[in-house]
Task: structure prediction
Amino acid sequence: MKTKSVLLSALLIFLFNAGQAQDMQYAKDVIKKLCSDEFAGRGYIDDGVNRSANYLADEFKKLRLRSYGRDYFQDFYFPVNTFPYPIRCTLDNIVLKEGADFFLHPASNSCSGDYKVRHYDLSDSVDQKLFERKIELGSESNEAFAFKGSKEEIQLANSRLNKNIVIESRENKIIYGVSTSVSDKCRLIFPDSIIDNASELSIKGSNLFLQEFHSRNVMAYIPARKKSSKKRRRKSKSVQPKRSTETIVITAHYDHLGKMGNAIFPGASDNASGVSMVLNLAKHYARKAPNKNIAFILFAGEEAGILGSLYYTKNPAFPLENITMLINLDIMGSADEGVTVVNATEFPQQFEKLVAINKTHTYIPAVKSRGKAANSDHYFFSEEGIPSFFLYSNGGPGFYHDIYDTANSIPLTNYEGVFKLLVNFIDSF
Result:
């Protein structure tokens, strides 16, 4: 009997773990697909973001998730600045590679010509005086100004120039972004190691400002299992089981930076990894009916200013007051040091529950607390008073908003542990 009891216990543990298991191969396939050249960095050139939206809607359909309308999309529009054409740049006759050696600033206007580079360190008092003197004397049209200093100092210096090229010289790694506006001048970003001491710049790059870019949130849901009732109607007829209206929402943004000239920003950790986790959770609950409704929302426009989630909170697919908990996932590339939870201090009861679950099962090394931050798609939900967490992983190679954040660069350390932690947390509601 003891042997049978041990075997039964082992079987139950196996079945429990199997029920919580995510599909690592599926995660890798999703990340590889989203980071492929087919989707052009999931941005605004070659319609990469909308083609990836079609792929994600097809995944929801394959998993037999329900849509909130006739399809899985929620359409919205916003302006965006793009650089769809090849970019040529040399410094002192050395040919540079866009994305690796330099960026056009996301808000840059078109650039074309040969320029003398003037260097100013705005944190240095002598250079400040020299720049003031230059402003008094006037700048020439063939001068490019390379500034070191804080963002505020560079912004002020930029505003004092007419239409000269402005170069931001950065000590640390340079990262790209998305802009919904366009500057009146050409702007470039270089690492110090490349722009320092350069005297001659040649640049040709053209922007294309899109006033109304059409983008889409991708949404689906799984209904809660019906709750049985012991109450009886007259004539002994059973009351029909009812489903809960309470909803857990799992979100991630699927858009990324797209292309800048010939440079592609694949966005593996940010945020193909988060999308893969959402799809893995959808796959899990498609096989196991949840206690509450679970909505899966993949937002566009996050990199342009968390615009997809802003639009959604103003145009929800179901009442926002039905949301019991929202979990936003971003940068799930490697949790070898655990995860950080934004809004942990705002919703301490839910955070303590999450920490307690991890402490019991030791899914990941740590669940760290962080306060309120408007840095991802959870933000506008929490501003509506909805308990909302933003989880991101800690550790890994650290590629972010650059051309090196590829499918092959992220190790997905403790990915399964994060998945199990999330499943346990979701099931606790």
Notes: Residues 23-79+211-223+244-427 form a domain with the Aminopeptidase fold (CATH 3.40.630.10). The mean pLDDT is 92.
